[in-house]
Amino acid sequence: MTKNQVLNDRRLEKIHKVLSRIRLIRFISYFPISVFVLLMFSFTILPREWMLLAGPVFEFFAVLAIIGILLWSVIVRLRCPLCGQKFHFWGTDIPRWRNWFWFKSLVIFNNNIFTIKCTSCGLKLNGSNAADLLKR
Known about the structure:
With 136 residues, the protein is an all-alpha fold. The protein contains four helices and no strands. It has helices spanning 3-44, 54-75, 104-107, 130-135. The radius of gyration is 20 Å and the shape is elongated.
């Protein structure tokens, strides 16, 4: 093996390690939001007698929503291991002066938290095209 092949193999290992971390964070963050949606739907179809549970259930919903928003704010800050840009944003980073509030990045319309590839360089979340992109 040449020196370049060894360097590329090490870089590929690092890329796959970072991508697995991104997948884990995304999985963890989708859980509270999906539970929130399922519980809200199931709560709407319950009989009227179950409304006594409304207080504790809505408190639980509020906690799930807050956890989901906090985790989404983590997702939108994840960086691509290949190009260094934010994984879920199109184009370049948002200037710091525009990101003055902690959830500002959630309401800007140039992000996609459900993407399966980097919006800047096209690196897939499973890393299947990492070797091809490293050759460029």
